[in-house]
Write a structure and sequence with these properties.
single chain, 386 residues, seven-stranded parallel sheet, 13 strands, globular, binds nicotinamide-adenine-dinucleotide, binds (2R)-2,3-dihydroxypropanoic acid, D-isomer_DH_NAD-bd, NAD, D-isomer_DH_CS1, glyoxylate reductase (NADPH) activity, oxidoreductase
Length: 386
């Protein structure tokens, strides 16, 4: 039997019981739920990653919906517990939902929400920051200064890579991959090569138009290419950023063999999910190739790093903060709450989960719809006509 968990309660007499497994930024999400007759219970347990047993205790005997986190294992056990408690909806406060067994949710008729769009630019900005920081050795240089080692300008001090005119490679050119590509192409005048299962038409159009603009101004135009294979990107690009979803097809997408075909001075950035890279192979590659650099926001066995990674100067490591801007995190909380609320209230599903702005406007009530339910089709949920 799991120990009781500590909770904070809002609107104790609300008709519907909604549980959030973590305190989330902002108060709009709480207010929106309370306004619609929800009693909101927030787990305040001082434990970063809740176990399945902790969450079962939180769900209790009656629970209409749960807002959860990407660190939690939402599978058969939790969906059956939620269903027994009368629950109809679960939403991750994240766009990625590789921690959720959607088939198990379908079996119990539980709608699964995620939070796309609101974190696209914030995440792409961190990927761009890691790219520049790795290319220009910013973290190493900062540590050097703080250690009191700087005793004057030197021609060879922390020499890194120029981005302008080099090639940026994007693997997974969806929402975030495309936003990142635009930042690197427009901001640093890099050429683009990308690999995705689908054609990124809007991205291609953007780069074409930007190239024409540069040409008209007498500057060298940028170029783009959709690669036929991932290997082509790895071979040709100087900076490579990974932005696919994590599934069976992307697990260890970057492995020992693929690292070996990359340029010796390439920069590799990962703001997707840790297991997309074989981290043991990466540590070995970094040791053998000191001019190869990485910027990592995510790790294979989060919160842990593979042995040796933390000692390497050619690795920049940050703790899964790519979506951590105030506006984005508050927006993620709002979207997650509205996903759960929408299902409880029997609202339809928003027709385009890429266009979630109407839900984020603080000056107007949100549309009567769930912003993004990933198993809407499987559950036969109606789509909003708004
Ligand atoms: N580090 C963070 O804090 C953070 C923040 C946001 C998102 N993410 C991760 O980023 C992922 C992408 O988010 P998004 O909003 O851009 O999603 P998206 O669905 O818009 O983009 C994912 C892209 O990956 C492509 N893809 C899928 N399988 C592929 C394969 N085998 N090879 C190449 N491409 C493949 C898809 O076609 C799609 O274009 C999320 O699933 C999440 O895991 C991480
Ligand atoms: O998938 C996501 O949304 C991230 O990992 C957290 O923002």
């Amino acid at each position: 039997m799991a120990k009781p968990v500590s909770i904070e309660v809002w609107n104790p007499h609300g008709k519907y019981r909604v549980v959030s497994t973590k305190p989330m930024p902002g108060t709009r999400w709480i207010n929106l739920l309370m306004e619609q007759d929800c009693r909101v219970e927030i787990c305040t347990q001082k434990k970063t990653i809740l176990s399945v047993e902790d969450i079962i205790a939180l769900i209790g005997d009656k629970c209409d919906g749960v807002i959860g986190q990407l660190t939690e294992d939402w599978g058969e056990t939790l969906f059956s517990a939620l269903s027994r408690a009368g629950g109809k909806a679960f939403s991750n406060m994240a766009v990625g939902y590789n921690n959720v067994d959607v088939n198990a949710a379908n079996k119990y008729g539980v709608a699964i929400g995620n939070t796309p769009g609101v974190l696209t630019e914030t995440t792409a900005e961190l990927a761009a920051s890691l790219s520049v920081s790795a290319a220009r050795r910013i973290v190493e240089a900062d540590e050097f200064m703080r250690a009191g080692l700087y005793d004057g300008w030197l021609p060879n001090l922390f020499v890194g890579n120029l981005l302008k005119g080099q090639t940026v490679g994007v693997i997974g050119a969806g929402r975030i991959g495309s936003a990142y590509a635009r930042m690197m192409v427009e901001g640093f005048k890099m050429n683009l090569i990308y690999y995705d299962l689908y054609q990124a038409t809007r991205l291609e159009k953007f780069v074409t138009a930007y190239a024409e603009f540069l040409k008209a101004n007498g500057e060298q135009p940028v170029t783009w290419k959709r690669a036929a294979s991932m290997e082509e990107v790895l071979r040709e690009a100087d900076v490579i950023s990974l932005h696919p979803i994590l599934d069976k097809t992307t697990y260890h997408l970057v492995n020992k063999e693929r690292l070996a075909i990359m340029k010796k001075e390439a920069v590799l950035v990962n703001c997707s999910r840790g297991p997309v890279i074989d981290e043991v192979a990466l540590v070995e590659h970094l040791k053998q190739n000191p001019m190869f650099r990485v910027g990592l926001d995510v790790f294979e066995d989060e919160p842990y790093m593979k042995p040796g990674l933390a000692d390497l100067k050619n690795a920049i490591v940050v703790p899964h903060i790519a979506s951590a801007s105030k506006w984005t995190r508050e927006g993620m909380a709002t979207l997650a709450a509205l996903n759960v609320l929408g299902k409880i209230k029997g609202y339809p599903i928003w027709s385009d989960p890429n266009q979630v702005e109407p839900f984020l406007n603080e000056n107007a009530p949100p549309p009567a719809a769930s912003p993004s339910i990933v198993n809407a089709k499987a559950l036969g949920l109606p789509v909003s006509r708004l």
